[in-house]
Amino acid sequence: MNNLHKVYLNIGSNIEPEIHLPRAIEMLHQHGEVQAVSTPWESRAVGGGPNFLNACVLIHTALDFEGLKKEIVHPIESALGRVRSADKNAPRTIDVDIIMIDGQAFSLEKWSNPFVVVPLAEIAPDSLHPNLHIKMSEAADQALKQTWIKKRSDVVLPLHN
């Protein structure tokens, strides 16, 4: 598999996250080489509802952005029962967001969220935050001082299948 892309994904769930996050990672193994998985982090849901667990995953894959959406993001969300509604803050079994491909940031509106920055800093501490123009490790330190987010080392996520 030549020409592999280095892709960072943020995965989150607030409906049985201890079940859905590991399942999503297991499914990622079918689409590329999972290189790193952060610790899950718990944060409050926007608009109320159960707290979320989020983690970041580094995967090497031959898929480009459109291929990722079509062959990874949508199938995993569908297989794990993700239901989209008019309420963007509704509870969900799984949410998979493409955060960065080959150093290019995507979903810039999500980069202000500690649940993206903090887990990403675990697996890519020297990457540059696209909005703040500082290292991810520094952005995570700032986020941890400003917002409640809790490391959940009790939830074990698989690195290898």
Describe the structure.
By secondary structure, the protein is of the alpha+beta class. It has a single domain (5-151), classed as 7,8-Dihydro-6-hydroxymethylpterin-pyrophosphokinase HPPK (Alpha-Beta Plaits, 2-Layer Sandwich). Helix content is 30%, strand content 24%. It has four helices and seven strands; from the N terminus they run βαβββαββααβ. The chain has helices at residues 17-28, 65-79, 114-123, 136-146; strands at 5-13, 33-37, 41-43, 52-61, 95-101, 104-105, 150-151. Strands 1, 2, 3, 4, 5, 6 and 7 form a seven-stranded antiparallel β-sheet that branches. Helix 3 (114-123) packs across helix 4. The two termini are 19 Å apart.
Q: Any chance you could write out the topology, listing elements then pairs?
A:
Layout: E1 5-13, H1 17-28, E2 33-37, E3 41-43, E4 52-61, H2 65-79, E5 95-101, E6 104-105, H3 114-123, H4 136-146, E7 150-151
Helix pairs in contact: 3-4
Which word captures the global form? globular
End-to-end distance, in Å?
Answer: 19 Å
The number of distinct structural domains comes to 1
The total of beta strands comes to: 7
The fraction of residues assigned to DSSP E strands is: 15-25%
As residue ranges, the low-confidence spans are none
CATH architecture: 2-Layer Sandwich
Please write the string of helix (H) and strand (E) elements: EHEEEHEEHHE
> Considering DSSP H and I runs of 4 or more, what fraction of the residues is helical?
25-40%
Structural class: alpha+beta
Structure annotation, total helices: 4
The profile of the biggest β sheet is: 7 strands, antiparallel
C-alpha Rg (nearest Å): 15 Å
